[in-house]
Design brief:
By secondary structure, the chain is mostly helical. The chain has 11 helices and no strands. Helix 1 crosses helix 7 and helix 6 packs antiparallel against helix 11.
C-alpha cells in the first residue's frame, strides 16, 4: 500500500542511530528487518480485492492499543531473524503513530489518505535521489517466514509467505496504470486502487502536506531508537505498559468498530 517507500527509508535512517549492538543484530538479518518496516500492512495484500479475515487481522492490529500487540510479542526473548523483524515493527509503529493523525485529519476518505501517502512516497524518493522503489519489489523467497509468523499470533509461515508474494505481485500491478484503471471501471470501483498510484511528481496540492509530514518524520526518527531499546529491554517480561507505546498505529486511543461479515480464508 502507499507509504511503503517512506517506511523503508525511515528504517534505514533509524539503523544509523541505533546502539552498535542493536544495529549489528538488525543487520545480521537485514531482510527480515526490512520486512518488519512494513508492519501489519502486509496483511492488506492478502486478496486485497475483497474483505477477508486476514486483512481484518491487519486492520485490527492498527486499531488496537500498541501494547495489546507488542505485549504478547515481548513475552519471550526474541533472537536472530525474529529480533530483527521486531525492530522493524517498532519502526513502523513509530512512524505510523506520528504521521497518521495528520494524514487522517486532512483526508476526506480512504482514497485521499492513499493519495497523500503515495505523494509522500514520491517525495521521499526524490529527496533520496531515487526514481522508483526498486529493491522493495524483490522476491521474498529465502525470508525466515517461521520467525516472522512467530510474532503474529494466529498466523503461520504459509500465510506470511502468501501475503508477501501477493505484496510483490500487487505492488508491481500498480505500475500498470492503464490496466488498473480498466479493471476499476469494469468493477465500478473508480479510485479504489488508482488512488495508490505512485505519482510521477508531487502534486501541487500536496506540497504543504509534504512539508508537515517531513516534520513528523523527523520527530519519529528521534523517537525510534529509544523505543527499540525499550522493547528489547522488555523482552521476556510480558510488559503491560511501556513508555512510547501508549497509542495505536493511528496515533489515537483505540476504539471499537462495528463488525463486518468477512470472506473465509
Amino acid at each position: 500500500m502507499p507509504d511503503y517507500v517512506a517506511h523503508d527509508q525511515f528504517g534505514q535512517e533509524v539503523l544509523g542511530r541505533l546502539d552498535e549492538d542493536l544495529k549489528l543484530r538488525a543487520l545480521a538479518y537485514k531482510r527480515e528487518y526490512d520486512m518488519g518496516l512494513q508492519g501489519p500492512d502486509l496483511f492488506f495484500f492478502y486478496k486485497p480485492y475483497r474483505k477477508t479475515e486476514i486483512s481484518a487481522y491487519g486492520a485490527a492490529r492498527h486499531q488496537e492499543p500498541a501494547m495489546r500487540m507488542f505485549g504478547p510479542i515481548l513475552a519471550k526473548a526474541r533472537e536472530k531473524a525474529a529480533l530483527s523483524y521486531l525492530m522493524g515493527l517498532v519502526c513502523h509503529y513509530t512512524l505510523d503513530a506520528a504521521c497518521h493523525p495528520y494524514v487522517n485529519g486532512h483526508s476526506r476518505n480512504i482514497m485521499d489518505h492513499h493519495r497523500m501517502e503515495a505523494a509522500y512516497d514520491r517525495h521521499v524518493l526524490s529527496r533520496c535521489g531515487l526514481s522508483g522503489p526498486g529493491r522493495l519489489l524483490t522476491d521474498p523467497s529465502g525470508l525466515d517466514f517461521d520467525a516472522i509468523a512467530s510474532l503474529w499470533p494466529g498466523m503461520d509461515a504459509e500465510i506470511i509467505r502468501k501475503c508477501l508474494k501477493s505484496r510483490q505481485f500487487y505492488t508491481r500491478l500498480l505500475e500498470q496504470k492503464w490496466l488498473v484503471l480498466f479493471l476499476e471501471t469494469i468493477a465500478g470501483k473508480r479510485g479504489a486502487f488508482s488512488s495508490m498510484f505512485l505519482p510521477d511528481d508531487v502534486p501541487p496540492e500536496q506540497r504543504e502536506h509534504m512539508r508537515r509530514l517531513d516534520e513528523l518524520y523527523a520527530e519519529a526518527l528521534a523517537q525510534a531508537p529509544e523505543r527499540i531499546r525499550t522493547a528489547c529491554a522488555a523482552m521476556g517480561t510480558a510488559p503491560r505498559r511501556m513508555d512510547g507505546f501508549d497509542r495505536n498505529y493511528e496515533g489515537e486511543a483505540a476504539h471499537e468498530q462495528a463488525g463486518e461479515k468477512l470472506d473465509p480464508l
